[in-house]
Please model this.
Amino acid sequence: MKRQILATASALILAASTNVAFAGDAAAGKAKAASCAGCHGANGISNVPTYPNLAGQKEAYLVKQMKAFKDKTRMDPTMNAMAAPLSDADIANISAYYAGLK
Model:
């Protein structure tokens, strides 16, 4: 019983610290997202119907999609090229920025 409680507590602590470690910095993301504005709009609302709006999307979804473009498990020539040089921190920051927009 004690072991089970200890294992559960350890898992919760690890999960909480993991979420904090990957939380993006929206201010840093705003600066990094300047190159995204050409397709996705200055405020994350695209003027082009074929380009998705990013404003207000869930942060975890944006992270997942940008990582997929970066590692080419999701293919789009433009987005693969744009995501390739991004670090995990860049991706987290950009995602936090767009998730915070309405």
Observations:
- The two ends are 47 Å apart (CA to CA).
- The longest helix spans residues 2-21.
- The helical segments are 2-21, 26-32, 37-40, 59-70, 77-83, 88-100.
